[in-house]
Design a protein that fits this description.
This protein is an alpha+beta fold. Helices cover 21% and strands 32% of the residues.
Length: 187
Amino acid sequence: MAPMQVVRPQVGYSDLVNAPEDGHRYEIYEGEVFVVPSPLPRHQMAALAVYKHLDTYASVSGGIALAAPLDIVFDEYDVVQPDVVFFRAERRHLVQPDAVTRDAPDIAVEVLSPSTAVTDRGRKMPMFARYGVPEYWIVDPVLEQLEVHVLDGKTYHRTQVAHVDDTVRSVLLPDLSFAASGVFPAG
């Protein structure tokens, strides 16, 4: 007789929608639900700085930048809340003001926190690649660097590591650039 296995039921987006509000933020990776802790001020300052740069670009280009909390529902069992997302003008229609977003953004940005760094580099990076997010930025507010990763087939390759004295450049949006120093709050 085979040994018994513990079977955990998959949690889906519909389960989150129907759950009572408890004040927590959740993400789902392959049907497994995780509580996302509230970020520290350093994280929020960096995330908002990146958002401002993308939002300024959006106002000129016709795209749209959005900041968390915002569910990106790739499918019923893969639901994430990137810190910042950007949709180009030609894909802006995929973001509906009164509906959940079910399409991959053009750029997803995650700002590392001690509690999320392993997930942001581990589970999320291959998930974003699997769902075709063309560019993934990882911001490390402690090391004061911003990495630009570009989707190449089914995996990302890092095209830039911008430090405080560098200029951040998007591959997807070649006319977008900004000083990395503006992303990191003064100590």
